[in-house]
Amino acid sequence: MDSVSGQGLYPLHRSKTIHLVRHAQGLHNVAREKDQSGAYTSPEFFDAQLTPLGWQQVDSLHKHVESSGLSKRIELVVVSPLLRTMQTAVGVFGEEDEIDVLPPLMLANTGNSSRPTISSLNCPPFVAMELCRERLIESDADDLWNDYARETNKELAARGLKFLNWLWTRKEKEIAVITHSAFLLHTLDAFGDDCHPFVKSEICRQFDNCELRSLIIVDKSMISSDPSTTDYPGRIPPGIDAPSDDGDEENL
Length: 252
Known about the structure:
The chain is an alpha/beta fold. The protein has helices at about 25-35, 50-65, 70-75, 85-95, 155-165, 180-190, 195-205; strands spanning about 15-20, 75-80, 95, 120, 125-130, 175-180, 210-220. A five-stranded mixed beta sheet has the order 5-2-6-1-7.
């Protein structure tokens, strides 16, 4: 792989930084460890809450985003509207606070969590987004489910790409996304084929519970029309501007 084909060069304003997070351990994850027969996919576990270990994982990631300065840079948190992802999102990017100053991100003991109220003070805005939710299941309570079949891997990947296109409608440049293992796995698998296999693996390998992975996405097809905030046109004030090297030695 030569130095040119192994690199990519794109305008900065056509990129966004996304911080992808898989939710922390939920009750359904424990159920799967105990029973590989598929019982964990039943509606009973569809909106599973976090386990006590899951909340410990949330606390660890919260400390990381604080110590790394990431919490100061994120402009938006997009979260799947299921309980385990919302608990993860508010635990990681919110602040436990008993002071009733602003509307809370999460009330005390939500989902039998035994956790105190989590404040929205100094937090980025949160958006719950159906497009990044768990795989659609066969259930009367699932409004997005089609009765002909459970959502396939291909359909899940297509929904993931639609979600990434939606991200380009947002003005924010640094966004955290809290979602699910299957959604991440099948969405990201569409990327990295033009990279070294190790780089492809960095993008596409399966997420552990409460893992955070930071990626850059680039708009190569003009989905977004946001102007650059750092480019400068030059020639201000204007003056003679003959090129110093245009292939004609007489003009040097």
